[in-house]
């Protein structure tokens, strides 16, 4: 396991955890965006829990690699779904935001495979 892999994985987990916390604690900028995208309020807790589980799974993946792969795959699918939701809402200028969160997850997975 390389230092780069550990650092990128921890950054990815921190970013996913921050995103989960912002959603679970109903940060105003998140609430406004989800409302604009017509995401049902009943989904918000589950979406936040999924991101939190992905963040924990990335860290656990440093010790049990298959867990990290599963968590990373789940987060990549989550953020891909976020991009689709943003496109569906025709908020094209917001497309980069979920990609910023997905990029370190992809980086962690690539570095994990290379290690």
Structure, described:
By secondary structure, the chain is an all-alpha fold. The protein contains five helices and no strands. Helix 1 packs antiparallel against helix 5 and helix 4 runs antiparallel to helix 5. The longest helix is centred in the middle third of the chain and has 24 residues, at 65-88.
Q: What is the radius of gyration computed over CA atoms, rounded to a whole number of angstroms?
A: 14 Å
Structure summary, number of beta strands: 0
Mean pLDDT: 95
Number of helices: 5
Low-confidence stretches at least 5 residues in length (pLDDT < 50)?
A: none
Q: Helicity range of the residues?
A: over 70%
Separation of the first and last Cα atoms: 5 Å
Helix and strand content put the structural class at: mainly alpha
The proportion of strand residues reads under 5%
Question: Biggest sheet: strands, sense, closure?
Answer: none
Q: Order of helices and strands, N to C?
A: HHHHH
* Global geometry: elongated
Which helices and strands appear, and what pairs or packs with what?
Layout: H1 3-24, H2 28-36, H3 44-60, H4 65-88, H5 96-114
Helix pairs in contact: 1-3, 1-5, 3-4, 4-5
Features:
mainly alpha, 0% strand
Structure summarized in a few sentences:
This protein has 115 residues and is mostly helical.
């Amino acid at each position: 396991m390389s230092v780069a892999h550990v650092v990128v994985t921890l950054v990815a987990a921190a970013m996913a955890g921050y995103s989960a916390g912002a959603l679970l604690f109903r940060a105003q900028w998140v609430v406004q965006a989800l409302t604009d995208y017509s995401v049902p309020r009943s989904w918000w807790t589950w979406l936040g829990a999924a991101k939190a589980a992905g963040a924990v799974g990335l860290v656990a993946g440093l010790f049990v690699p298959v867990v990290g792969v599963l968590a990373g795959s789940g987060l990549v699918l989550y953020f891909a779904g976020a991009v689709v939701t943003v496109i569906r809402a025709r908020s094209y200028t917001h497309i980069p935001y979920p990609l910023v969160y997905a990029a370190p997850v992809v980086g962690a997975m690539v570095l994990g495979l290379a290690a």
